[in-house]
Amino acid sequence: MKTLEKIIFGFDEEFDLPEIDIEALKKEYANRFEFVTLWNEAIPDGVFIEDAVAFIGGPSSELLRKMPSLRWLQLPSAGANHMTQHPDLAREVTLTNSSGVFGVLGAEHTIALLLAFTREIPRYVKQTARRIWNLGNRCLQIDGSTVAIIGYGDIGSEIAHRLKAFGAQILAVKRTAGTIPEDADAVFTMDGLNKVLAVSDFVVNVLPLTKETEHVFNDKRFESMKSGAIFINVGRGGTVDEDALIHVLTSGKLGGAGLDVTGNEPLPENSRLWDLPNVLITSHSLGVGPDKYTKRAALIKRNIEKFSKNEPLEKIVNRNLGY
Question: CB of 233 within 8 A of CB of 245?
Fold first, then answer.
């Protein structure tokens, strides 16, 4: 009798698949894989995961150490920086993420933040709560503005596509420049970042967190930005020096900051960012939306099929680059 290879689903409050999908996979691969489901990393009595060849989810160090036969780890997130250099994840394990799942959601979330600042929405929300009728006088405009998108991947390109419809000029910043991407007006490498920041009305950070990008937005970067510019961070919190950000927000150098991510999450209650009137914090909610579940489930199903045939998987993470 052929021994089935074991694939583990690591589900929690943020990530799972409908039971009907799990049952369909069990039926389709009945002669190839044994599927085991863990909830919040609890291993049921009588279940062994030491022989697991694949894990779909975000395993802890403890769980990784229990799976010495692992060949493939599929993350439910687009971010993979927490796993690329993980000491308990063997280098020969193929690491894949869920990039491509969050492009539309990320773009719409970013547009919402940009519009909130251009139309002074945070001010009006506070006035509504206090029943105050006052007109704003610091509205901005996307049409005719210059928007820098730092990190021009799936989310970045979707943001650019929508902003072009608003009439913005798009400056794309990538690790390698090459040809000008669709919907961008110019492309730069990170070496040209300061030049881009100096002329941009809006700066959208979509960078992953790597050794090269950690605190890339520091005092010097913020000081090089155009006075009154709006900074949006939908990438990773660790790419920003928050003390430097607070300084330019309180000094008046920057007009405001929309932060979906922060260095520590949840953001500590004593962080000064909570109290700044020109800061809007959205609690890492970029990925929230109905489209996420269907796209992510489809990606997982495609990768299971490819894994069963020993074909190259989709969304392989370069563990040296960190994304």
Answer: no
**Smallest Cα–Cα separation from 283: which of 213, 246, 234, 250?**
234
122: how many CB neighbours lie within 10 A of its CB?
Answer: 16
* Number of other CB atoms surrounding residue 19 within 10 Å: 9
- Report whether 222 contacts 248 (CB < 8 A): yes
Yes or no: say if 198 and 82 are a contact pair by the CB < 8 Å rule.
no
In percent, the amount of the chain with pLDDT more than 90 equals 95
Confidence at residue 136, expressed as pLDDT on a 0 to 100 scale? 86
Angle, CA of 145, 113 and 120, to the nearest 5°:
75
DSSP states along 60-124? -HHHHHT-TT--EEE-SSS--HHHHT-TTS-TTSEEE--TTSSHHHHHHHHHHHHHHHHTTHHHH
pLDDT in tens, 39-65: 999 999 999 999 999 999 999 999 999
**SS3 category, 311:** coil
Per-residue pLDDT tens over the stretch 139-148 = 999 999 999 9
| CA–CA separation, 186 and 229 (whole Å) | 19
Structure tokens at 231: 């900074």
Q: Residue holding tokens 């600042």?
A: 117
Q: Give me 296's structure tokens.
A: 């992510």
Q: Which residues are catalytic?
A: 236, 265, 284
pLDDT digits (tens, 9 = 90+) for 102-121: 999 999 999 999 999 999 99
Residues 83-91 have a mean pLDDT of 96
- 242 within 8 A of 268, measured Cβ to Cβ: no
The Cα-based distances of 55 to 50, 80, 203, 295, 303 in angstroms read: 11, 15, 37, 18, 12
Helices 154-165, 103-118: inter-axial angle, 10-degree rounding: 50
pLDDT score at 1: 57
